[in-house]
């Protein structure tokens, strides 16, 4: 984008308030995209009500919008001139106007301090750095390209080892002189072990990708959320009435559950999931700047099991758990007696600290003049991850690091063991 006065390129600067600002390095002014004024003016609701409602006189200007290239309108409020675009709703503010607006429209729970002189000084410094950089300098390597080559080589090697194991197993089976040894006795453990090793490698890789995503997304204050992928921290609050957890009967704002049945005997016994689900009611997450609605449908939950109940030696479950199973429509009895069940539930309690990474979406029909808690919500998107956890970001990254290395080292060890068994 270009400055409305000097037509030089604007310099994009990160800010502590959340969104980046497009600033003129010559000090003529700065550009605010639609909704960004919310993050730089304390009582932004009063300011938006004053714009276009008689607080100032709007006049047509010769300036054109740097985004839409249409004629803009100018209005003066409390000594500050606002040049706005009717199409993209962006604002151009001359030097000093943002400070004037913030001084005139005070009154928020969190004070906002703007130092415009530092903004313009940073813009000048960045522009000078760009001018002095050599045009013949090599282009920087794209982020993640080195990692892409590394992991392509890594998984290619793992697949090559798996292929060698498979071929060696077939050859060993075909040339064995022990007729009593069935082919499945050799091939089946090799195939299962190799498949397990590849799955562990894939698990380690997905954990690494998730770790990089979480580490690369900055935490946003709820008041300054923008559409798209966001990361927030705050306390959980119910949207309406508190829910009741199905098996523990605890008050909560969200729960998930899983019911497993023990089937088989001896070596073939296992726990089989027969029912699982989550509550569907949205809930709020609040920080010091505001609150936003979270719609948990489709989220990856990183919550510990708060309550686990299992059928005892007498084939009985606690009364609360039995009542919960009945409400969920899950039978606790089988054809020949009580089933051996294990019931798990995870909860988000009121006022519990949460980490949420998801997509900020806009309610249909909402105006840009409304607050984030009314206009936006966080939900799932097919293009982005959606994670809800009661762990802090630091603890999540630590856990994902252990999962990543456990998957990589465990997968390599399992594949190497299968290779040794196939080649002996």
How would you sum up this structure, described in words?
The structure is a single chain. With 424 residues, the protein is α+β, with helices and mostly antiparallel strands. A hairpin with a 6-residue loop joins strand 6 and strand 7. The strands form five sheets. Strands 1-2-3-7-6-5-4 form a seven-stranded antiparallel beta sheet. Strands 8-13-14-21-20 form a five-stranded mixed beta barrel. Strands 12-11-19-16 form a four-stranded antiparallel beta sheet, with no helix packed on it. It is 33% helix and 26% strand.
For the largest beta-sheet, the strand count, sense and barrel status come to: 7 strands, antiparallel
Mean pLDDT: 79
Rg estimate, integer Å: 30 Å
**Termini, distance in Å?**
67 Å
| Count of the separate structural domains | 2
Strand content: 25-35%
* Helix and strand composition category: alpha+beta
Uncertain segments of ≥5 residues (pLDDT<50)? 134-146, 177-182
Helix content class: 25-40%
Give the number of DSSP strands. 22
Strand order of the largest sheet: 1-2-3-7-6-5-4
How would you spell out the order of helices and strands? EEEHEEEEHHHHEEEEEEEEEHEEEEHEEH
Q: What general form does the structure show? A: elongated
**Helix run count:** 8
């Amino acid at each position: 984008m270009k400055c409305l006065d000097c037509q030089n390129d604007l310099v994009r600067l990160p800010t502590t308030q959340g969104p980046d600002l497009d600033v003129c390095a010559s000090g003529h002014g700065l550009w605010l995209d639609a909704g960004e004024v919310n993050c730089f003016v304390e009582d932004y609701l009063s300011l938006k009500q004053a714009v276009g409602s008689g607080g100032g006189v709007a006049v047509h200007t010769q300036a054109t919008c740097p985004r839409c290239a249409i004629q803009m309108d100018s209005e003066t409020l409390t000594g500050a001139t606002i040049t706005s675009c009717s199409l993209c709703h962006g604002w151009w503010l001359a030097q000093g106007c943002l400070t004037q607006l913030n001084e005139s429209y005070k009154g928020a729970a969190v004070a906002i301090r703007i130092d415009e002189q530092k903004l313009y000084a940073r813009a000048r410094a960045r522009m000078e750095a760009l001018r002095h950089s050599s045009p013949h300098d090599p282009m920087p390597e794209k982020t993640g390209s080195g990692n892409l080559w590394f992991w392509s080589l890594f998984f290619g090697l793992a697949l090559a080892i798996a292929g060698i194991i498979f071929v060696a197993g077939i050859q060993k089976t075909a040339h064995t002189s022990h007729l009593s040894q069935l082919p499945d006795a050799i091939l089946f453990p090799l195939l299962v072990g190799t498949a397990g090793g590849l799955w562990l490698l894939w698990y380690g890789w997905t954990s690494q990708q998730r770790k990089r995503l979480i580490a690369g997304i900055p935490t946003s204050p709820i008041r300054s959320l923008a559409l798209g992928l966001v990361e927030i921290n705050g306390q959980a609050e119910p949207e309406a009435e508190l829910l009741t957890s199905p098996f523990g009967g605890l008050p909560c704002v969200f729960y998930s559950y899983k019911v497993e049945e023990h089937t088989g005997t001896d070596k073939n016994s296992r726990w089989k999931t027969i029912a699982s689900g989550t509550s569907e009611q949205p809930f709020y997450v609040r920080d010091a700047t505001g609150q936003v609605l979270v719609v948990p449908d489709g989220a990856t939950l990183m919550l510990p099991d708060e309550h686990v109940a299992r059928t005892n030696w007498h084939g009985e479950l606690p009364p609360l758990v039995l009542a919960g199973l009945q409400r969920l429509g899950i039978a606790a009895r089988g054809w020949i007696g009580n089933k051996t069940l294990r019931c798990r539930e995870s909860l988000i309690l009121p006022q519990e600290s949460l980490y949420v990474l998801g997509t900020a979406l806009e309610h249909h029909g909402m105006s840009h003049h409304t607050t984030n808690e009314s206009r936006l919500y966080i939900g799932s998107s097919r293009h982005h991850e959606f994670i809800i956890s009661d762990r802090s970001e630091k603890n999540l990254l630590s856990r994902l690091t252990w999962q990543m290395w456990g998957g990589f080292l465990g997968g390599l060890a399992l594949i190497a063991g299968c290779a040794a068994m196939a080649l002996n």
